[in-house]
Design goal:
This protein has 483 residues and is α/β, with parallel strands linked by helices. The protein folds into four domains: 2-124, no CATH class; 129-192, no CATH class; 213-263, no CATH class; 292-482, Uracil-DNA Glycosylase, subunit E, CATH 3.40.470. 41% of the residues lie in helices and 14% in strands. It is built from 18 helices and 14 strands. The protein has helices at 12-24, 65-74, 81-93, 106-128, 157-167, 205-216, 224-230, 245-250, 252-262, 271-279, 292-299, 334-339, 346-357, 390-407, 417-423, 430-433, 452-457, 461-482; strands at residues 2-6, 32-36, 132-138, 144-149, 172-177, 180-184, 189-192, 325-329, 366-369, 376-379, 382-385, 411-415, 437-439, 445-449. A hairpin with a 5-residue loop joins strand 13 (437-439) and strand 14 (445-449). The two termini are 42 Å apart. Bound molecules: uracil. Uracil binds next to helix 13.
Amino acid sequence: MRRIVLEGRGDFGEWREAGRALAAAGVPPEEVEWLEKGGDKQLFWEHDALPPQPAEGQKQMTVPAAFIEVASAVICHSDPIRFSLLYRLLWRLQPDKKLLDVISDEDVSRVRLMEKSVRGDAHKMTAFVRFKEVGSGISMNGRRKFLAWFEPDHHIVAKTAPFFQKRFNDMDWIILTPKGSAGWDGQKLTISNEPCEKPNLTDAADELWRTYYASIFNPARLKVKAMQAEMPKKYWKNLPEADLIPRLIANAESEVLAMAERQATRPLPFHDRLQEAAHNLPTQPKAPTGTLEALREEAATCARCPLHARATQTVFGEGPSNAAVMFVGEQPGDQEDLAGRPFVGPAGKVFDQAIAEAGIDRATLYVTNAVKHFKYEPRGKRRIHQKPNMGEVKHCRWWLELEIELVKPKLIVAMGATALASFTDTKLRLSEIRGQAIPITDGRLLFVTVHPSYLLRIPDDVRKEEELARFTADMRHIKHLAA
Ligand code: URA
């Protein structure tokens, strides 16, 4: 048995060096015991020497990029099992490069849960760090100085510090945590693994922050469950605004009633025209036979539901009639409605970039939507996207089924909950089946991922980047499934 002792403070390089050397020397996972420096067991054991790294020119081991991505997050987890779990996966990946796709595998599902927990912790750190100004105003270098305290579950300080450097570049700051600290002085980002003690940080700025929080709290948009999920109680003790929350929630209902009374009522825009269109629905168009072109022509005059009344045109799918992969979005947006083509607006740009990074040529794909008309609400000169309801999705499913019948794709990719609802009437949660290849009728596979416009709406930069990387990883998976 070899005993490998690591610092274990989220340093991926440290584990990678050891893992590589052991695997290259053919040391199987069951012959390695991984210990964390300072841990109970480590006090009794010495670190065994690593086998020499493979010399240049000697056969190097390879792992899929997805493993590096997942391992560099999981290495930050605080569970000591992470080292051996990652090494076992590294070992098992050598003969089976697709192992990470097998989400029913115990090691894979465990590592994915750990990855999720680390990413969630990093996200919470970006959301709940509250800086307090320290010292008397401007410092020697002309910059103001701030201090913050945070209690992460995992070793995420080094991973998350660049976010704060970017966001709070023009001030000096230090973030202290029981798992180390990060500091920025305008020149250098300093990371330390030394555990810190909680400083006493209550000051007058807390009152300002609490006043601000209470004034931006909108009772009409209150969703208690979502709020509890986003801001778990364990973070409250370090948030100056936390003790206001119970009162704000308790008063929300009466506040909303008071707000409603202050509002004048207005007729719904386009109400009459929509009603008329709904009552004058023509009988079902006949099912066109033959080609996609004939189907497209028929769909151009579709009036199966009231949505056609306000849209500029039907936005039908596009792509080769024998495409192996069909992507299904929600409905055309503002720009798609004007251009008459799917995914050419901002969400289309995100989509194009992710597939390009995954090495997929859009010209080989059939790209369409669950609903073929743009649904929106006019607001001044702008048209604000509105989610299609289940009735509209069901009406339009008729076209989608004909598109599938003609194109006969091997793989269908549903992007977002509306596209998913096109394929199933049960309320499956997207997050539960994301990333899996699910067999459906006629030997096809259905792959579910998020909608690209969801990525555009993520306000937090770090999370946005993480979710973009996850979406791109889904595209790579799709490429592999379609091959
Ligand atoms: N969103 C969609 O779902 N489809 C498009 O075509 C554009 C944006």
